[in-house]
Amino acid sequence: MKRLTLLLLLAGPASAGMFDDAKNLKVLPEDTTADELRATMRGISMGTGNRCSACHVGEVEADLSTYDFSLDDKEKKAKARKMIEMTREINLALASAFPDADEPLVVVTCATCHRGQSKPEMIQDVLIKSLHEDGLDQSIAKYRELRDRYYGGYTFDFSERMLMRLTESVGANEQLDAALAFINLNLEFYPESSRSYAMRAQIFTEQGDIPAARQDYEKALEIEPQSGWIRAQLDKLN
Asked: Would 179 disulfide with which of 10, 89, 144, 171, CB 3.0-4.6 Å?
């Protein structure tokens, strides 16, 4: 079977010459070439958002030629090795499960889960944690902070559907004030989201504010007049 290696799309010349005499390879094959090792290391760094010093012995801003990459002094390096093994097992399992696939299988890499961050959290996990630990206002502020920092990248999902799912989740736990705040936040960034208006109408209905619910259903229907579901909800309300 062809050996599976970690993929890297950007392996530039900046690290050329590194790992020409690699030592202490424990999970990567001993015959891994210097080019393959450079690509793998850079792929891990880009995928997890970690600098080399996270796993290896060396100063953050120091020249990489001063690092001793063979040392196993850091716990994070041991964890990284386990993650490499896990990723390899997943890819081998996929290849074994679909040997006759018509198209090349998608290869799982560090970036598949981490998406450029050290801890592979989804944004809804971050916001729910902030809601429980810091309160609603801080959770909303956290969303704005993350959106300012990461919007346009692949680390977090800032689509309208994410905040709708979050609204539904907190609403199911009878946190209607939080649900209303999150759907209002969604409408701030997606003012033409008919489903967000319909979802807010449901919250207003739960709160007993029927005029506000009717107004939102009508707005949703104005945006999406072909929606039989929204029309049915408005008819039911009326």
From this structure: 171
Neighbours of 217 (CB within 10 A): 27
| Percent with pLDDT over 70 in the chain | 93
| Domain extents in the chain | 13-114, 123-237
Tokens of 1: 């079977």
**Residue 47: how many other CB atoms lie within 10 Å:** 22
Architecture of domain 123-237: Alpha Horseshoe (1.25)
Angle of helix 176-189 relative to helix 136-150, nearest 10 degrees, comes to 30
- Is there a contact between 217 and 237 (Cβ–Cβ < 8 Å)? yes
**pTM of the predicted model, to two decimals?**
0.80
Residues 6 or more apart from 29 whose CB is under 8 A from it?
3
Q: Mind listing the pLDDT tens digit for each residue in 130-177? A: 999 999 999 999 999 999 999 999 999 999 999 999 999 999 888 999
Q: What are the distances in angstroms from CA 144 to CA 4, 123, 214, 218, 220?
A: 40, 11, 29, 29, 25
Distance, CA of 26 to CA of 36 (rounded, Å): 15
